[in-house]
Predict the structure.
Amino acid sequence: MRVFVTGGTGYVGQAVQQALLRHHHEISVLARHPSNLASGVQFVSGDIRQVDLTAVMQGIDVVIHLVGIIEEKLSQGITFDVMHYQVTKRLVDAMRQNGVPRLIHMSALGTRENARSRYHQSKWKAEQYIRQQGVDAIILRPSLLFGGGAPFFQMLKTQCHWPVVPVPGSGDTLLQPVARHDVAELIARLVDLPQYGGETWEIGGPTVFTLNDLYRHVAKTIGREHLPLFHVPLPLLFAAARLGQNLPGFPVTVDQLFMLNEPNVTEDTRWHQIIAHPTPLGTDF
């Protein structure tokens, strides 16, 4: 299959490249810079917000759309609406103009109508556009990803070295981490499985943790058996995040606090038809 990948040089995209190569697909990756490209992958230079997608997708069989951000950069025009919705709209429109038959779209667990976070709102808007345009797509909504230097888990690991670790709220939020390489392998196999078009799958790992549990799990990997946790009241955190939202480098955003304090779990196991034994969270973060 000829596969066109957006976001292919990012955290998930690098694993997807490797999985696609194992399955002997012909891969083109659109990116602004040719870094993090595996040998044998064709580089397509361009900014997805501006490049002529109709021209670069000629002859493609499947599009894998992985573009996503977790934090906005307003001065650069990088917003949730632009990067999640408007970019997806450009991509879907180009697919229809070129007659590209299939799309595998990366969304996020927690995406839903009337979500509190603008992150999830923009993801929902993108999903809805895909459905309304009648594109043959499977939409994937993974929970927190781990493995290969996952940014969220690297942040937890750094904090676990502190004398006392601040935790947003009660720390009882339920999370269901899933392995990056499992999601990448799932995507690579779906390229050859058109029968799943039109479906939306939620993807969670085999174990549900509280946020407190995750901190303790990560702490044990660095030899801290008894991690002192300090639970910071949410009203205080939200007030600080609103004050600091325009300051460069402020450690947390209002959107991230919304997401950290709502369950991120699922009972959907349809993806086990393809990945029968999902990887449990271990020590590879």
Q: What stands out?
A: Residues 177 and 277 are 14 Å apart (CA to CA).
